[in-house]
C-alpha cells in the first residue's frame, strides 16, 4: 500500500477490501488451515473406518491451523461417527467437547437471535465472549455436510477435518466461490468499506472547460463517478446534475504529460473531449484510479484476493449505502472488477515496415495477411518512400481500415490531418516527409491507450514538398502510453548515398535529438519504458554491416538490441529495441522478412509486459 493513502485512493479501497477479505477468510489462515487439514487427515480416516454409529473423535484446529485446548489445557476433540457420515444429525459424544458451545462454531449456543440480527458471539484472545459485525461473520465460515465441522477458511475446496469436497455454496457478502474458469468470486457489500465507500460514488471538485475552443469558459463543477451505475455525471457545485455519460462510451482517460492538474476524457457519441482541472495532484490521481474501473472487465493488481494456485479473482461489490463523513446515502446496483496476482499484463506487439519505393499500395491479399496476421494486440507499421499521391493520408486510412476489419481500431495515421481516436487534429513537425506510421489496436486495448503523439522530421534544408520522389533522410516518431507503460517508436530512413559510418551515425543522432513528443525536458534515451527503431538505416551499404559494432561501441543507439537471427543477413531494413531494465521487460518472439511481398520489408513480434 502507498505510504500516503490519501494520494492513491483505489489502493486505499483495495487495502480495505483486503482487510475485509482477510477478516472473512480468517486472515493469513489459509496455510494454517491446510496444515490443520493435513494434521487431521489421519484421524478423520480412522473415524471413517469406524463401525456405523460408533463415535470417533478428531482433534480440532482453529482457523490458523493450531490445535485447540480448553481452559484446563486439555485438547479439544470433535465427535465424528457413522451417523454423521450418512447425513444424519451428529450427536454430542461423551468425553468430547462441543465446539459450538465454546463459541468456535458459526454462533454460540443460545445466540441464534443475535446472529440473525447483528452478529455472533465468539471468543476473543482472552477467552471472553465478544460480538462481531454481521458483515464480517455472516459468511465467514461454512459447514461441512458430512461431519458438520465449521470451516473458517471460506474459499477452502475441502473440509479441514474429513477432507470431503465442499458441496453447498453460500450466497452472502464476503463469500468466495469458484466459477467454471477456476477464478474465485468474492462478494462484498459497499458498507464493508466503511468511510472508504465514498470512492465508489466518487465526487470531485473540478474546473471544466473545452481546450479546443477559445470561446469556452471555465466553470466550477462537481464530477461524480458511479461505480455501480457505471456513469460519469456532470453536476453543479450544489449537486444538481446537468448531464450524464455512460461508462460504456468512455474510451480514454488521459493525463496531461507536463501539467499534473489537467486531465482529458474522451467518449464515443460526445461532440468534444471533456477537459478537467483538479485542485491537487492527489485529486487527479484519485479520479484516474476510480475512472479506470469503469472500463469493461477492469483488472487491478490485488494479489491478496487471489488464493493459492489462482491467478485471478472476481470481486463483486453490492451497493447498499455510502458513507460520506458520517452521513450515509443509499447505493444501488452491483459493480465488479478482476483482481490479478500479477502486477502486469502481457501484450503482443507487432512492429514492422514496408518500403513502397514510391509506388502505390499493391493488391497484396493473402500475402499481406501472412506478413501481418490478425493475432496480435498492437500493430505499429512503418511505410517508407510513400508516393506523393498518398501523402494526404486518405488512401492509407481506407486501405488499412478495410484490411484490419471491425475487431481493430486504426488509432493513428501520421499522414492524415485528422486522427479522431488519437484526439489529434493536424500534423506536427516538418510537413510531408515520404514516410508514415500506422498504429492499430485491438478493440479491448483501445481504452487502455492514452497520450498518443507523433512528430514528423525531414533533414534540415529539405523542402518536404508533396511531389518530391526522392529518398532523403527523414523520420516519423510515434509515442503512446498503454496503462502505466510508455512506448516510443522511430521510423527512420537514411539516404543510401552515405558511405562514411560516422556521417550515418550523425544523421541517426540528428533524428533522435529532434523528437519533441511527450516531455522534451527528459532525454530521449530514457523518456520511455520501451523504445523501438525501425526502417532502412543503410548500414548494409557499407563494405561491412557496421550497425552492431557501432551500437556495442556506444557510438549510436546505446544499449539497443537486435535479435541475432537476422543479424548476419545485411538487410536494408532493421528493427532494434530498448527497454527500461527495472520496470519493463520485452520478450522477442519473431524476427523475419517476407520476400513474397516484392518490396523491402521486415517484421518483429514482441511480448511486452505492461504495468497495470
UniProtKB/TrEMBL annotation:
Residues 39-52 have a biased composition (Acidic residues). Pfam families: PH_29. Residues 185-327 form the PH-like domain. Residues 25-53 are annotated as: Disordered. Signal peptide: none annotated. It comes from the Eukaryota. Gene3D superfamilies: Endonuclease/exonuclease/phosphatase, Zn-finger domain of Sec23/24. InterPro entries: Endo/exonu/phosph_ase_sf (IPR036691), PH_kinetoplastids (IPR057607). This is PH-like domain-containing protein.
